[in-house]
Amino acid sequence: MTTRAEFLGRVRAEMRKVGAPGPPAAPERPAHLGEAAAAVRREMSERWPEALVRFVQEFERVAGVFHRVATPAEVPGVIRAIARERGAREILTWAPAELGMDLGPPLGPELAVLPAPPGGGELDRLRHREEAARAGIGVTGADLALAETGTLVLLSGAGRPRSTSLLPETHVAVFGPGALVESLEQVGAILEALHVDPARSMSGAVINFITGPSRTADIELTLTRGVHGPKFVHAVFVDGLGGAPR
Amino acid sequence: MSEDLLRVPFPQRAGAALKDAFLQEALTIATTKFIDLRREAFEGFPQGDALRDRARGIKEATLQRLDHYLGLLADNVERLGGHVHWAATGEEAREIVLRLCRDRGVRMAVKSKSMATEEIDLNEALEHAGVTPIETDLGEYIIQLAHEKPSHIIAPAIHKTKGQVAELFSRELSGRFAADPEVLTAVARKELRQKFLQADLGITGANFAVAETGTLVLVTNEGNGRMVTSLPRLHVAVMGMEKVIPTMTDLVVFLSILAKSATGQKLSSYTTLVRGPRQPGELEGPEHFHLILLDSGRVRQIGGPLREALYCLRCGACLNVCPVYRQIGGHAYGHTYPGPIGILLTAMLKGTDSVKDLAHASSLCGACKDVCPVRIDIPRMLVELREQVAHEHVAPVAERMLFRAAGRLMASPALFRLGARAGRLFQRPFTRGGKLRSLPLFFGRWTATRDLPPVAPRTFSERWDELDGPKR
User: Fold this and answer.
1) What is the ipTM of this complex?
2) Which of B275, B300, B325 is the last residue of a domain?
């Protein structure tokens, strides 16, 4: 088998054919990554209402369903209506601490709310997998809502399983003004900061950009939704939802 | 790629495709739709051109210090608890995957769409080793059930009708399914959902890998890339070594043009950034993550004539606009990567020898270069490839003599004029309706499928001489 040294040795030998390699090019980005991300946050704390208008437009263009409520107390009502519409009985959610609300008391007992256990033990894991495979609705937060493309950005981690937004037929993302950004470029600045600033560092291994429902056009180019992931994606925007943005 | 297909020479493969009426219609509909979607996406995106230049610049800058970025990527993947393997050949890459399967007792593997594993014939190797590979991209799943090969980089099953898919599913999955994409998609969802939950191993490629953070990036529409990296206990990614990019800032530049070029979407439904195995506190994700960096002919092009082909993002835009691809489709090319870029990639991975016919399967119109998100100069490299083919594999004696004669003729004005006069004389018996329709001897092979314009009654140079006035 080839070793790292052999492989990179061949790469270097080829590079020398083109010319003596200089130092790696300095990346085209702000010098202070943490500050750049903070600047995006500052700008968006002013401009989020415009970004929201664009987000709704783009999110609906990719077949998302948008809801807006004033306070977190109104969120369970929105979810109950979605559950009724879809005939769903079981609601998988992120851990209440990560979601910013506990949906169990307001939705029970007619709906079974299945929050992700905050830990990661083997038993928790097995139970969660079974629940995720059978729940009809998955409720998550959204760390970013990207207006330019109607995209929800979700970071995985403790209490924020990847499959909440993947296995159920319907995904509902709940977020407030702090999640809104305008452009992919801004997302780039925030992603850079996530990886350099230990205080903001993410705990999980995965970041998902979700732009509308799962889709395919592999049979005669006919657009079909819900091939592996959710068939329906809802965004619930809560004006009064605070919480520290990432 | 199946050896049977390659035993038939390219002209016959292309000829068969041209006679396939369904394929012709499917290709026209699909490629026209992709072209329109791409154009609309870029029309509403004025910064697109500048971003394409930037993306190209990033690819070139990365190649200039590829050793550094590959080392950095490997360091970061390992820091996060992943394992990195270096594969000089496809065979080595397969061996690494098979060893992991043996060590971890893998019986079933779910795969998200990956051209790199297609390229190294991983499925066949897994089957021989007793591991069942399941393709989970709907298009790939269809052609796997049908024991066929993908015909388009991003729409692998465009050559099949919904009726054919319904028949296939009914036969393979025991049921009676209507020829309705909605129904058939639901069937695949149910079937594959079980496989995702049962499989021991998830296999992916990678659209990008960010060196500075050790992040693998998967772009999918169906969500299978997410399933495959979340549910099985082992994740193996096979990635061409040229997919590495330096930073997250660079990544968003590519994301902003990739889906627009491929399907006309602003972003694909899912862009998944994965760093290593499951982290502490996470309920899901693999216990082990392995990244296989693949050379297989790529490295020697860093200093070689196909260097620019290493920029390729595998978006498929050049296929859709290529007048040759639009006529013959992906299978006729006979290799993993079809279309204009596919000819270059085949030459890169399998050597110039394997493209001695394909190098000519281009009109050199340049449409591929125009739509390429990183502006790869495909026509230039195709011409160079033809030159190389001509030098190395010596065409038939008659062809060589003919070209040598033509060279002499065109180098001398007197001979050229004489030739034109002789041509006018000899072409007479073969000219019908103002075209040369059937020439004798081996020239007949040209006129069997094409008309040739005859030598003009008065050539341009003859008319030029008759003009009055100053000529320089």
Assistant:
1) 0.96
2) B300
| Phi, psi of A157, rounded to the nearest 5 degrees | 165, -170
Residue A186 distance to chain B (closest CA, Å): 9
Domain check: are B426 and B277 in the same one? no
Spans of chain B below 70 pLDDT: 1-6, 394, 471-472
Per DSSP, helices labelled H in chain A are: 4-18, 33-61, 75-86, 96-99, 104-107, 122-134, 184-196
What are the structure tokens assigned to B336, written together? 């993993």
pLDDT tens digit sequence for B298-315: 999 999 999 999 999 999
β-partners of residue B44 are: none
In a domain, B105, yes or no: yes
Single pTM value for the model = 0.93
Q: Does A123 touch chain B (CB under 8 A)?
A: no
CATH number at residue B99: 3.40.50.10420
Task: Among B246, B272, B300, give the residue marking a domain's end.
Answer: B300
Residue B172 structural domain? 32-300
Q: Give domain status of residue B374, yes or no.
A: no
DSSP A182: -
Of A119, A162, A192, the CB nearest to B230: A162
Starting at the earlier edge strand, list the strands of the sheet with B108-111.
B83-87, B288-294, B234-240, B201-204, B108-111, B132-135
Residue B330, domain member (yes or no): no
